[in-house]
Design brief:
294 residues; binds nicotinamide-adenine-dinucleotide; 5-stranded parallel beta sheet
Length: 294
């Protein structure tokens, strides 16, 4: 028999990750505010309906995959929180992307109770979660990392322990997402220019795919979203916007000026305010197009 594992947050990322753990013979106890998500875990052989308090008593590892700082803070430090109710020796692994300052706050609180805490943000999207090809960048104590490695190896293909600083994995993740923000904006503008220049987008892809303009984000955004005019996420524009904000906060902490990144954040903020937030980030291409007719 495998491990007993808690999994809080069964959304676009969390559900397939929890299902992967199940498929390797582990027992997974899931919690989500969304009952449909819990029902999906149940259908895959998981256990639902237990309180967090109860799960803490049953398992040695708990993963979280949550959409916001507020949700992460509530789930870890709220009245019924994982750290509030946690016990010595349990390993808590947050795969959400949050500000480095929250990683630090949770690590300090966890340490007081001898709880092991890792901040382990992931990259690779929903497809990576489904195919178990995620890249996972982990910050925190090496010993807890080594203990968790067999489980992390189920979830992803490339697992890195960045260093013992709890926020180190998050820094790498935010740098990655800053680049994703750049590429997505670049692809959105470039493809609009191509269309105005009477270039067929499928043909353009073929040509740029063997040129230096190629990128994994171009391939993803074009093939999975723009070409099908279908922007169901994926990775929502509002989640990207959140991460760009954290990246710029990190830059401020270091008194580093990043003027192009500031501009980028503004573009995504506008897009979110105009109602594009819940669609995949590739929808920025449509915003650029719609802006021409304003
Ligand atoms: P999501 O919104 O699809 O899933 C979050 C889930 O958490 C939802 O099912 C929601 O109901 C649940 N939830 C929220 N508050 C809760 C609470 N208090 N208790 C229990 N459940 C709660 O988001 P997602 O796309 O799965 O992203 C999750 C995290 O992973 C985010 O931090 C995101 O930045 C990060 N991430 C996402 C992607 C991606 O491609 N979607 C890629 C890498 C990292």
């Amino acid at each position: 028999m495998g491990e007993k594992i808690g999994f809080i947050g069964l959304g676009n990322m969390g559900l397939p990750m929890a299902q992967s753990l199940l498929s390797e013979g582990n027992e997974v106890y899931g919690v989500d505010l969304n009952k449909d998500a819990e029902a999906a875990l149940l259908r895959s052989g998981g256990v639902i309906g237990l309180s967090i308090n109860n799960i803490i008593k049953q398992v040695n590892f708990i993963f979280t995959s949550l959409p916001s700082m507020k949700a992460v803070e509530e789930i870890y430090l709220g009245e019924e929180g994982l750290i509030t109710k946690g016990r010595e020796g349990i390993v808590l692994i947050d795969t959400s992307t949050v500000a480095p300052s929250l990683n630090q706050k949770l690590a300090e609180e966890a340490k007081k109770k001898r709880i092991h805490f890792l901040a382990a943000p992931v990259s690779g999207g929903v497809i990576g979660a489904e195919n178990r090809t995620l890249t996972i960048m982990v910050g925190g104590p090496k010993q807890a990392f080594e203990q968790s490695q067999p489980l992390l190896n189920i979830l992803g293909e490339n697992i890195f322990h960045v260093n013992e600083h709890i926020e180190s994995g998050t820094a790498v993740k935010l740098i990655n997402n800053l680049l994703i923000g750049f590429y997505t904006a670049g692809v959105s503008e470039a493809l609009n220019l191509a269309e105005k220049s009477n270039i067929n987008l499928a043909q353009l892809f073929e040509m740029l795919n063997v040129s230096y303009g190629q990128s994994r984000i171009y391939e993803r955004n074009y093939k999975s979203f723009i070409a099908n005019e279908d922007y169901r996420p994926g990775f929502t524009l509002q989640l990207l916007n959140k991460d760009l904000g954290f990246a710029l906060d990190l830059a401020k902490e270091h008194e580093l000026q990043l003027p192009v990144s500031e501009l980028l954040l503004n573009i995504y903020k506008h897009a979110e305010n105009e109602g594009y937030g819940s669609q995949d980030m590739a929808v920025l291409y449509e915003k650029v197009k719609n802006d021409q007719t304003k």
